[in-house]
Amino acid sequence: MRYFTVRFLQMLFAVWAVATLVFLFLQLTGDPMELLAPEDMTEAQVEELRKAYGLDKPIHVQYLIYMKNLLRGDLGVSWTSGEPALALLAQRFPATLKLVLVALGIAIFFGLPAGVWAAVRADSLVDRALRFLSVVGISAPTFWIGIMLILIFSVTLGWLPSAGAHSWKHYILPGVTLSFYRIALFLRMIRSTMLDVLSQDYVRTARAKGLPERVVVYKHALRNALIPFVTLVGLQFGHLMAGAVVTEWIFAWPGMNRLALNALFTEDRPVILAFVVLTAVIFAAVNFVVDVLYGLIDPRVRYA
Q1: What is the pLDDT of residues 257-279, one digit of tens each?
Q2: CATH code, 266
Q3: Disulfide-capable partner of 100 in 30, 240, 265, 297 (CB 3.0 to 4.6 Å)?
Q4: Structural domain tally of the chain?
């Protein structure tokens, strides 16, 4: 219970800290009336508009009102559409979630076996080739990968659509774009962990008992190597939910990251704040679940 309570309080503190920092940073971006108020508005009309949005109050009063509403689940109303910011994000959330799950599925499907293969054949030609490809995958910018995939499979070959989310085909290019870096990351992670596990005494004992190499690798070694891998997958899920902005923009994906980027262009502060708070909650919750699961898997963690 102590471990559980400490992690839960850390999660709440992280969400509060993120929400506070973003609120303060947005105050430094300038007067939003310069974007919201039409040029033909009089000074009196601008002041009325400022009062309607609550921008006439001191910053500390705005912050207290913001935190009070946040505790009630009220994340404000969009300045551009007039709809509740949370409702706008809820409409876009499923599209982002599906894309993230597709990307993680692709990354696990290719990255996990490739990492095991590289570890089992350490320092071989296959291992060196996979390590080289992992460096390329980690180094290549996401926007470049997305543009190249569109150029090859949409423009040149015409096999796959490059925008929208109307069918399963629309998930392929953005899913591969997001998974490219994660495949390389998972490959390197599993390879490193498997090399460490394969050198342990219990693995040598399993081989000395005459167990087939397949059983030694996949039943004994891989099960132990998956513990840190589960943690990494959980963290990457949080990263993708809040960090698929470039991919959603390139592929015109109707997700919440694209909505947040549009809100930045129009300085729609309620939507920006709602997006940050929602993604902070998602990321903190995933971290919390991973920490608790890690503590259940390895009891030593609970007393660290």
Answers
A1: 999 888 888 878 888 888 888 88
A2: 1.10.3720.10
A3: 240
A4: 1
